[in-house]
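Dear colleagues,

As part of the handover before I leave the project, I'm documenting each prediction I ran so the next person doesn't have to rerun anything. This entry is a single chain, and its sequence is reproduced below.
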Amino acid sequence: MEFKKVAHIYDQVIGAMDYEAWSEDIKFLINKYAKKKPNVLDASCGTCSHLTVLEQSFNCTGSDVSPEMVEMGKSKVKCDVFVKNIRKLDFKKKFDVILSLYDSLNNLKENELKKAFESVYNQLSKEGIFIFDLLTLKSMKEMNNYQIQAGHVEDYSYIWENLYTTGVWHWTFTTFIPTKKGVYEKHVEEHKEYFHSVDDVKMLLKKIGFELVDLHDTYTMKKINDETDRINFIARKK
């Protein structure tokens, strides 16, 4: 998913999360599974909200497919941030840990997810760690409970529409942006997120050469269950 005009209000609307607490959980996982003093790449960094915390403890780099998100994120961190597609990572150096958080990989269809996993595998150092999360089917289906949301942030007005169909969460974000002429410009972005089952993800990771070392609920850090909304996967390059 490549955010464009939405990038300017992403943190206030879509990205309104407790990133500090979430990043502390990711920090715990990195310390548990990666080697000491790892080089960390957040390959779906968005506006760098996780990196603001993680760069205080690790040597970090950020990348994202959206130039607009990268531009917003650069002002928040000291580390380098690049515009790159997770399916086509081409850094000259290897990383000990690669992250893809906040259901970024749900934006990819199955064949695209395979390319992303292969790209990450090739960019990791020997026995490097890949930490990512995916939405559960329960979480996607519940998006129908929030079909239309609207609000006003800074000078922007927005309408956020959600719809779940079989295996796909469709969402449309319409922004109304003021111009110097005193009128508002309308911008519409349409996005889709795709469900990937745990079994399919396990099979794909194994086929590429990863070893799945942990699987748990993102928010509770405990075993997944019927109430889990988001799943953390921790895989090691063999």
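The first strand starts at residue 39 and ends at 42. Residues 138-194 form a domain with the N-terminal domain of TfIIb fold (CATH 2.20.25.110).

All the best with the project,
I.
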